[in-house]
Amino acid sequence: MSTTLEPDGTYEGVPAYCYDNTAGGPIGSHHQRWDDVAATHSGFRSSIARGFWVVTEGTAVQEALQDWRTFSSTSVTALDPDPKFLWIPEMLDPPMHTEWRRLLGREFSPKAVAAREPEIRRVAVELIDQLAQTDGADVLDGFARRFPTTIFLRLMGLPEEDLERFLDWVHDVLHLSYEQDPDRSRQFSAIQQVSAYFQEQIALRREAPRDDLLSRAMTWRIEGKPISDRDLHAFCVLMFMAGLDTVPIAVGWVLYHFAQHPEQRRAILADQALIATSVEEILRVYSFVIPARKATRDVTVGGCPVRAGEMVMLPLSVSNRDPRRYDNPRQVDLARTTSNHIAFGSGPHRCLGSHLARLELNVAVEEWHRRIPDYRVADGQDLRETGNMYGITSLRLEWT
Ligand code: HEM
Fold it and tell me: Would you say the CB of residue 294 lies under 6 angstroms from ligand 1?
């Protein structure tokens, strides 16, 4: 994939491009492309499939995410304005969304998350200790994916022996390129398996509730009514989509960044207080989530004349790397004091798991560097990143 877009004329007076966000590319190419486009456009039309709008003006992206009345979450996939599936709470608008968030907020509050810290640290240490005995590894397979997935299984009360199955499912549902799965049959089969798995787990807890998130959710009431199995299932599927791939992607960027910047690695080793700043800066600079919304009315945003019912893509990168918001926006700056980034989104759907994600990332950086302080990117790799959410596909590091 080149970093430049293929022009496709204009659409209602706005530049149109063949822009496909599902395509992977060389490492860094997605961010480079957003930077280039944002420097010259406030928005454009993607002419892929039925077409959708893309806003590339940072402030407009943030404002649209906050304006849920105009930019609804009833669809969050730019290529599909009328999805046949439901993810809860992601695809709900207020007031129903607000009820779910109030109930879920207790489970993901800073206090609830902090109580898990010793366990989170133990899981990280165990995995890193194993790697520290070797002289290198694919750190995505060996650590970045295993660590948060194990925590996720514990949080949801799912059996840990299912870890390998989950890793395979995440790969097949979220990472297969068009060449690897041209008719999407592998992806479809994995989605069916995930769906059947969660149906079974819900049934098990209906029979015998346990002390876990899923069992507690069964006791909640939304709009005065108990939650149906259909909605519990929609919640589980969303947790799979939102909670499983994101921290691995972020850990991958953290290790890649520090491998490329030994001076910053030495700085965090000398002053642990810089770790939290480094995590925030890496989340900002390597922002990898690209939300989308469905317009409920005709509206102009980022210069795009959006009609009611059309989809709008809102890449977080253009806000987080906006030169009008940050000096040297593309640089991870350990001296930056105010960040205010939107890597976890903005508005009512701002990430439910942000406290957990931050804790996992801080623990990962601390424990990794205590055990493996000196490492480098192994030579001879064709480093690439996925489409949809931009994560490194595989990353071999070496250490002594
Ligand atoms: C570095 C890691 C993470 C990043 C960058 C991230 C980013 C995001 C973003 C940008 C959104 C908003 C999407 C939108 O507006 O359409 C979101 C939503 C969400 N995230 Fe995260 N996330 C991370 C980790 C997690 C984790 C660990 C969990 C749970 C275990 C989680 C659960 C959720 C949920 C449930 C939502 C939907 C919230 C709602 O619709 O109200 N996320 N995340």
Answer: no
Tens digit of pLDDT for each residue in 299-324? Answer: 999 999 999 999 999 999 999 999 99
User: pLDDT for 38-62, tens place per residue?
Assistant: 999 999 999 988 899 999 999 999 9
Q: For a substitution probing ligand 1, which of 71, 76, 153, 246 has the most ligand atoms within 8 Å of its CB? A: 246
Helix, strand, coil % in the chain, rounded to nearest 5? 45, 15, 40
Dist. CA 85–CA 74, nearest whole Å? 10
The answer to whether the CB of 352 is under 6 A from ligand 1 is yes
Write the single-letter amino acid at 194. V
* Residue 238 alpha carbon, nearest atom of ligand 1: 35
Nearest residue to 318 via CA among 288, 340, 348: 288
> Buried b vs exposed e over 199-234: b needs ≥16 C-beta within 10 Å?
eebbeebeeeeeeebbbbbeebebeeeebeeebbbb
Structural domains of the chain, ranges and CATH numbers in brackets: 6-399 (1.10.630.10)
The finding on whether 58 has its CB within 6 A of some atom of ligand 1 is no
Phi, psi angles (nearest 5°) of residue 339: -110, -60
Best residue among 71, 97, 245, 354 to mutate for probing ligand 1, ranked by most atoms within 8 Å of CB = 354
Tens-place pLDDT, residues 75-121: 999 988 999 999 999 999 999 999 999 999 999 999 999 999 999 99
